[in-house]
Write a structure and sequence with these properties.
Elements (H helix, E strand, L loop, with lengths): L2 H28 L13 E7 L6 H21 L1 H6 E7 L4 H13 L4 E4 L3 H14 L3 E3 L14 E3 L4 H15 L5 E5 L4 H16 L7 E4 L6 H12 L5 E3 L5 H13 L6 E2 L7 H7 L6 E5 L9 H13 L6 H19 L5 H9 L4 E2 L4 E4 L5 E2 L3 E5 L5 E5 L1
Parallel strand pairs: 1-2, 1-3, 3-4, 4-5, 6-7, 6-8, 8-9, 9-10
Antiparallel strand pairs: 10-14, 11-12, 12-13, 14-15
Helix pairs in contact: 2-11, 2-12, 4-5, 6-7, 8-9, 9-10
């Protein structure tokens, strides 16, 4: 073999070695086993997926501004920490396909945590991708009851159905001093089932007489069989009724029956009752009722809430929504998690997220629960017959 052939052979050998090394390097960089967020570069990246275009764009503004205001808070209170955090915004175009594209774009950026999105449909898409690609996800939107049970990488910055049930039980017992609560619900509705079950357990835990009646709605509900179920409930002589339904028509019908029977029994309901259409459906037959929501601008504001409101309105000329507040809390969760991690690996981030407690959310202290939803204060709306609403925090 000539010297030239030897040199050429050595060159080919070295080229093959280099190609193998490059392949290994690429595999390590992209592999889920070795994937590490961009923290090793001194930057903690938080991805935010929200609709900036399409029919949901207005909701997207609330999510976007809520996240920005939270970071602005840390830029004043924890300057060094905030200086390391970079937010990357991606438009989900108000569609699941847009959410998928946004997720993959953030995955390439090697973000530590993703927050998103504004709609349940797009958020469900993100949750599936978060599980597949092992990226921690914080969802501000409300998803169906029990969604987080099989999603180890998905967390929720709103309160769950079970937490709503617990809050309403505390309201009934401790604040309204009711001792004979009854429940009327659809057992085939997962949300209603979870709220009813949690409410009943919390009532028992208060060492009271317990729920006096637990009524089930028929599978095919009409006005007649619903009224029959309600009248059966009334025979137990309750002093308050939990009615965990999203149907404003059934709520209005219940109020009408109570009004006609001259029964002064308040109702406990869901966040979905915070709808002007309920006033239209019930009209003059509106009766006393209570339900939780995430935020109200009519609250007597704390210093932090006043500052939040000022910051929010400096970005957009309107009052902040519940989604803006939940998104603010989402960013607080992300920042507090990143502050408490050292190596910033996905495994460590997940461990810290699962154990978060004593975190200062906008309305008060928040804690991560076992189902990856939060225990957090809620605004309770009390509707009195003269159309006056009272807003208080529980």
């Amino acid at each position: 073999m000539s010297n030239g052939q030897k040199v050429l052979k050595a060159y080919h050998f070295q080229t093959k070695i280099l190609m193998v090394l490059l392949f290994i390097a690429q595999f390590v960089a992209e592999s889920k086993l070795f994937a590490v967020p961009a923290a090793h570069l001194g930057v903690l990246k938080v991805g935010v997926i929200t609709p900036l275009t399409g029919p949901q764009a207005e909701y997207g503004k609330d999510l976007l501004i809520g996240v920005k205001v939270a970071l602005e808070k840390y830029q004043k209170s924890k300057i060094k920490l905030a200086s390391k955090i970079k937010i990357l915004y991606k438009d989900d175009r108000s569609t699941p396909k847009g959410a998928e594209d946004a997720f993959h774009a953030l995955k390439k950026e090697r973000v530590s945590i993703i927050i998103g999105s504004a709609s349940p449909l797009n958020s469900s898409q993100l949750a599936e991708l978060a599980e597949q690609f092992k990226i921690p996800l914080i969802i501000p939107a409300s998803l169906k009851s029990g969604y987080g049970k099989d999603h180890s990488h998905t967390f929720f910055s709103n309160f769950s159905s079970k937490w709503q049930g617990y809050l309403l039980a505390q309201l009934s017992k401790s604040h309204l001093k009711k001792t004979r609560p009854a429940i009327l619900f659809d057992p085939t509705d997962p949300t209603a089932h979870d709220i009813a079950d949690s409410f009943e357990q919390a009532v028992k835990a208060n060492q009271g007489p317990g729920v006096v009646h637990k009524g089930f709605l028929p599978q095919e509900i009409n006005d007649t069989n619903f009224i029959n179920a309600l009248e059966t409930t009334l025979k137990s002589n309750p002093d308050i009724i939990l009615l965990p339904t999203h149907s404003l028509k059934l709520v209005a019908l219940t109020m009408s029956v109570l009004k006609n029977k001259k029964e002064n029994i308040p109702l406990l309901g869901l966040t979905s009752w915070h709808d002007p259409n309920l006033n239209i459906l019930a009209e003059k037959e509106m009766t006393n009722h209570y339900y939780p929501i995430y935020y109200s601008s009519q609250l007597k504001q704390t210093k932090d809430q006043i500052l939040f409101k000022q910051k929010f309105t400096s970005h957009i000329n309107r009052q902040p929504s519940s989604l803006a507040v939940i998104s603010y809390d989402s960013m607080v969760l992300a920042i507090e998690t990143l502050e408490k991690t050292k190596s910033h690996t996905t495994a460590e981030i997940l461990q810290v997220l699962r154990g978060l407690e004593n975190i200062n959310g906008l309305l008060g202290e928040i804690k991560m629960l076992g189902d990856h939803s939060l225990s957090k204060p809620a605004v309770i709306i009390e509707y009195i017959e003269n159309s006056r609403q009272i807003h208080s925090v529980l």
